[in-house]
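Ticket #4471: structure output looks truncated?

Reporter: J.K.
Steps to reproduce: submitted the chain below (337 residues) through the standard prediction queue, then opened the result file.
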Amino acid sequence: MRRFLYFICFFLGWVISGNAQQKPQYTQYILNNYIINPALSGIESYIDVKAATRQQWAGLENAPRTSYFTIQMPIGNPDDFSSATSFGMVGENPLGRSYKPEYMASEPHHGVGFMVVSDKTGPLSNTTANFTYAYHLGLASKLNLAIGVGVGASRISLNTTDIKLENPNDPAIADKGTVSTIKPDISFGVWLYAVDYFAGASVQQLLPQEINFSDSSNPNAGKTKSHGFVTAGFRLWLSENITVIPSVMLKYVNPAPLSIDLNAKFAFKNKIWVGGSYRAGDASSAMLGFNLGSFLNVSYAYDFTTSDLNIVSRGSHEIVLGFTLNNHYQVTSPRNF
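Returned output as attached by the reporter:
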């Protein structure tokens, strides 16, 4: 009963007030900033594929479950390196400290991508598909700027059989079973990147839409909210073989409070990495990942719930699989992260 009451409070707060976030939460965003910013389309020289699944607040009935698939690639980008044996790009540690002086900005090029995200919370589910485009240009010899846009649609569904209404004829829900509505979805982002730092900003659900599961007008219909993200980080070489990437992400959804994520990722020879994250008022996280050659990488994150939900939650789990296709130079981790 206590778990059920917690879920009801969470669900009503999300649906009725609209004050909480409507887009999924990602702990390992540092591995795939493309999922929140379309400007990263085609940022690397290879085809980048990611698949992930997240179980939030394990142990809490009807808690959010999220899965996504993304693929993005460059178009018209000349090879980043003069040859397959270019200095600092292959071997035991392709991004060692000696790599920094050799870094050069990418040539102007285009990037395209596609992403599909499925998110389910109780009787509500949202599946969003977007095509993305970005243009990359060099602002200086070692500095790049990318501007991107994503265009697609969201299918928002409600399983009314999971809801018990005081009024069975509530006009907000005309039909029984699963009812859905399809709305356009637009995102926009900018991304500044160099060898040792990055900064970006993006907006998702740029055009707020009314959500109504009935053919009749409803003054109390829900609405989608624009989500704003600001992300920044930098790379430090602690030694030739050890790097650390501290980063921060700010997320704002009006009228909810500002959300702040603080992260740090330590990598050894770009083969294995560990990390930690802190999300104010929500969770602390531990992360572990492996680059299994130049084709496959895998990572796992566990969130320790620090909010009042820790009474009924056993934390959150997130797994990300990455594949690098057409990776001619066998880069084992992103050059332009």
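Triage note (M.O.): checked the attachment and the full token line is present. The first helix runs from residue 2 to 17.
Status: closed, working as intended.
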